[in-house]
Amino acid sequence: MIGHGQYDGGAFFEGGLELWHRGTGKRRRLIADNREVLLCRFDGDRIRFTVSPVDDLDTWEDPGRTLTTYEIPVDAHEVELTSLTPWAVHEDVPYLPYQGPHEGIHRLETLARRHGVEYRPEGLPWAMLWRDEDLAVATGRGEVVLWHPDGSAERWDVGAPAIGLWDAGDRLLVATELPRRFDDPPGHLPTTLLGLDPTTGAREVLFRGTHHLSRTPCGTFLAEGLDLPAPRGHDHLITADGVRRITLTRPYPGCPAFSGGPGLYRVAGTWDDTATLVTVDPQSGMERPVTDLSHPGRSLDRTLGVHHDGLAILAITWRDPSSGRRTAGLRGVQADGSTAWEHPFPCLPVALAPLDPGRLAVLGTGGLLEIRETNGGSVTDSCTLPVGPAEPVSLAHRAHRLAVGLTDGRILLVSTSP
């Protein structure tokens, strides 16, 4: 489905809504009106789409504008909007910044066609893992890609941007999340946990909700209810036997849970309150406080964590409330909550990965990669990766090999010394 529009040089934005069959190349117009379509989505056997006003001069002096959402069946053909009852009317929607043509992408597409190939940029690699010699990647294009050592790849469509990936033996577990938008319907559930068979591509929906998903070492998933949309969703434990509702303290924003020992670590609290590192039992869902992460004069902005060599190792980003400046540090926390070691980090941390016993990889903005000892946290090796204008977003490790995912879709392979 394609919703489109363009400025006609006057007071109007023209466009339309069409269905395009990729295999046959045939197109079908869904609406008869020449209206700019800003948003569109499938909802079962229905299509929901949002259009601009007929005349943008009606709201020219306003900081926002009124947009209208309609709903039609998938088999619709050239429907007149005047024959429809609006599904929703959105008032005072801010104008989105204008995005001009992507000249760089257009040039790459033209160059590729001259050589008889198709230019296809890879999706943003939100999560990665190694399966023997193959590298599985969950991408923002709504795909899971399995790269083989010879450079070939298998691809599976998972229906929405893929943001999480776990190995479950004969299948992959994939977390997908639809972007949240102003036209989301009541009860919209953007987060999905899928089981994906990498031999057939078959998918099984295991859970839907408005949650952040984390996996324990025993295979249980924790689904933490998020604050958006309010009120906060319920928390759940997802096991092979089904889904069980539990009650957790409010998660601290920007601090995803991580696997540790037999269960999980998570950060509880709010921006105007203290932040506490707690553990969650994967069977009962009971929480136990470990240590206070609050810092005088600074607000906790984000945390990342891994459990390695008996320590919960945290990469913490702090924000100065007065200046907005952010600084970062690394901290090793023992099971009793005491601090084993603490060091500053020269940039903002992006990902952590436990290596062989005694070592840890820390990835930061600008492509900084450090290898640190888990006993003491000192740096044993470091380098700056050739990321160019891109930034790292994900990290996967296997033996002495690291895969680093970048915002432009590239994946760098890095070898570490034994």
UniProtKB/TrEMBL annotation:
Top-level taxonomic group: Bacteria
Full protein name: Uncharacterized protein
Organism encoding this protein: Arachnia propionica
Lineage: Bacteria, Bacillati, Actinomycetota, Actinomycetes, Propionibacteriales
